Amino acid sequence: MLLVRKAKANLDLAGDLIMGFWIFMTLMDLLIPVTMIGFGRSFMRKPPENINPWHGYRTRMSMKNRDTWEFAHRCAGKVWFVTGWIVLLLTIPAMLLLLGHDENTIGTVGGIICLAQCVPMAAVTVPTEIALRKNFDKQGNRREAGR
Description:
4 helices
């Protein structure tokens, strides 16, 4: 009887550890979309004050002048805000499907989800640079409406 209780206690502990790992992986997989939503909202409302090489959306075109800096941040902010919510809403059910699976499955799928989230996070440059080139010339001057 004592052996059965010990075995049951070990199973309970193993289940708790797996659940703890699932919670950890879920929190880690929520970091990227929550960060995208937070910075997206921040950039839409108020781009960083100074054009700088350390913080914000930084490309040659976005750093030409204050106008391109603010435009790029508002554009990138919108993209991050929207895609952050989409990624978040895809991540939650994906992680819920992993409930009850073993640590290897949770870790592998959680890692794949994290890597997949990096794609839309980095892809913000494509629509932002297209919008910058559509609205500004190479020197950073705004294009006229008809051009």
